Amino acid sequence: MKTFLATTGRGFGDSSLARAEYGSGGEWSIEFPLKGQDVRCLAADPLNPGILYAGTQGNGIFRSEDSGQTWKTAGMEGQIVKALTVSPHESGKIFAGTKPAYLFVSSNHGQSWQELDSFRRIRGRRLWFSPAEKPGQAYVMAIAISPTEPQSIVVGIEFGAVVRSTDGGVTWSNHISKSLRDCHDLTFNSNDGNWVYEAGGSGGGASFSQDGGKTWQKKKTGLSKNYGVACAADPDRPEIWYVSVAPGPGKAYGQQAEAYLYRSNGGASWKPIGWGPHPMAQMPIALVTDPDHSGHLYAGLTNGNVLFSEDYGEEWMTLPFNLSGIHRSLIII
Predict the structure, then answer these.
(1) C-alpha span between 316 and 313 (Å, rounded)
(2) Alpha-carbon distance 140 to 133, whole Å?
(3) What domains lie within the chain, and their CATH numbers?
(4) What is the pLDDT of residues 275-312, one digit of tens each?
(5) Which of 47, 233, 296, 324 has the least CB density, counted as fewest CB within 10 Å?
């Protein structure tokens, strides 16, 4: 059975990180580790099963070596960590994005960190500005590493840019045309490094690349709303990917989201999928696919429910637990 962890968005209370595990007695147990920490993002180490990282609002990074049951500090003290990713190529290599929008790397499981200074010199960053959080500083929202090119990294900023490095972060592009400046979610296909996907709040809601992030094209045909929240892609069929959208930020993160969930198949227009009539009251705020099973899709909802489909989103079931709320980050191990 899988273990689920999610950020709940509930600040420094006891439930900013939720964990669901299927026990030997045949029942799901829910716990809230890392009490007293405002957890903002999560990442799992693809080369070391059970090792997880959590970025917090002002207290740096924490690491777990037992699938999220217990945690200890892993550096970046005092930093607001908004995005984390772990290299699928090099054991113990982690990238962390912060607010303000800086980028850091560790090559030893978080024992020490180094800022990638070149990220501060990206052209146009003086125009980055996010109205999402006072005082309006932009921040790193997503970091994606190619599954086939270890030195290829794509980073999304809220609100500002999508930028790319092909040398492991030594140098960076400026904002890439036709990607979405207001990045909310960004991911490579888990098996095909040519495909990169983005959901964002500008430019139509969804964009994708078929050349590793070098060039992008916006995918709007069929979308009824243009505020993209989350995206995911099938591991074996990279042309199949998913995006959740809403009318705007007030709806996406509110009690009545007016949410839509769509699937794209290559060049075809978006097709609405989901577990009820659109629009839906609960936002699919996190979308996760299974790298080992084509067609499997999980949707984490703002009310804490996790839904599962094994046929590309045609039919759904609600998993028998509730995480009390999901805010952006959902990982499954």
Answers:
(1) 7
(2) 13
(3) 78-332 (2.130.10.10)
(4) 888 999 999 999 999 999 999 999 999 999 999 999 99
(5) 47
